[in-house]
Amino acid sequence: MFVAADALLAEQGAKALSCCHWAMREDERSGYNTLVKSGANIITCGASCGGHMGMYNYMKTMDRSDYVKKATSGQYAVMGMGKHNENYLLLEKLSGQCDSGRFDFALLKQYSDADWESLLAPLLEQWELLDLLYAMDGKYFFTANGKYYYRQMDRVLLTAAECALYGKPGLMEQAGQKMMGIMKNMK
Fold first, then answer.
1. Is the distance from CB of 98 to CB of 120 less than 8 angstroms?
2. Most exposed among 30, 70, 108, 135, judged by the fewest C-beta atoms under 10 Å?
3. Contacts for 123-131: CB closer than 8 Å, 24+ residues apart
4. Spatial distance between the Cα atoms of 98 and 114, rounded to a whole number of angstroms
């Protein structure tokens, strides 16, 4: 059904903004999602939302009445805050490219000296064989099937990147893998 909908939207002139957002008009954008997926600083307004500021992330209280009470009394309704690790922006850029349905590994040079295209070549080759993406002009583009599976592909991509960055997961990470996965920058 997704593949048929993707084809119909393309046939009707819709522009793919990401793997799961399309625009029918020129003024339509997926600005917030694009910014979040690229690791941009995000200051959020309202309950139950999170954002980033520099190397820190935060989450606001989930309880709307608690949020209103704190906001009206001049308090900032932060439920929790954490610090990103040194590879946060690299992993966000990889994830953002996955969300967009295309990879341009040259764009990662400012975040890492590693040759990510070579490091991830076995995975990319497997995805090509499965008709999830194709290579063209040094970039990779998701097929309709790839767009459908992009969330799973993102998870596998980040897991592979973290194994390259940090090595095999330790015993504690392996124990938690069934529930949370081994990714250090869970979304």
1. no
2. 135
3. 123/156, 123/157, 123/160, 127/153
4. 18
Which of 96, 133, 126 is CA-nearest to residue 111? 96
Choice between 130 and 15, residue whose per-residue pLDDT is larger: 130
CB 182 within 8 A of CB 159: yes
Cα–Cα nearest to 101, from 162, 52, 142, 43: 142
Above 90 in pLDDT, residue 73?
yes
The Cα angle at residue 96 between residues 144 and 8, in degrees rounded to 5: 25
- pLDDT for position 148: 94
> H or E stretch including 35?
helix 31-37
175: confidence class by pLDDT, cuts 50, 70, 90: low
Specify the DSSP class assigned to residue 106.
Answer: G
Take residue 146 and report the two structure tokens written for it.
């790839």
Distance CA 97, CA 16 (A): 13
- Six token digits for residue 84: 């990103």
Exposure on the CB side of residue 68, measured as CA atoms within 13 A: 3
Does residue 151 contact residue 110 with C-beta atoms inside 8 Å? no
* 124-142 tens-digit pLDDT: 999 999 999 999 999 999 9
